Amino acid sequence: RKIPAFIRLSRHTAAVLTQNIGLALGIKAIFLVVTLTGHATMWMAVFADMGVSLLVVLNGLRLLRK
User: Fold this and answer.
1) CB 31 within 8 Å of CB 45
2) What pTM did the predictor assign?
3) DSSP calls for the chain
4) Residue 66 in this model has a pLDDT that exceeds 80
5) Distance, CA of 48 to CA of 4 (rounded, Å)
6) How far apart are CA 37 and CA 18, in angstroms?
7) For the segment 32-61, what is each residue's pLDDT rounded down to a tens digit?
8) Number of domains present in the structure of the chain
9) From residue 36, how far is each of 1, 4, 25, 42 by CA, in Å?
10) Which residues contact 35 (CB under 8 A, 6 or more apart)?
């Protein structure tokens, strides 16, 4: 009875995981380009990384509603 629910949850988990990886790598790539052009500092990159970490955690917490 619960196998279809587990399959649905695992598919949703895989989708959220893909979103989180894409978001994290995307922000890191943006900051790499901005840093190489000389428009970003190390502190900006640290704050961006912490912000992405929080977004990834909050995005993952959406799975608790399922």
Assistant:
1) yes
2) 0.83
3) --HHHHHHHHHHHHHHHHHHHHHHHHHHHHHHHHHHTT---HHHHHHHHHHHHHHHHHHHHGGGG-
4) no
5) 38
6) 29
7) 999 999 999 889 989 999 999 999 999 999
8) 1
9) 54, 48, 16, 11
10) 45
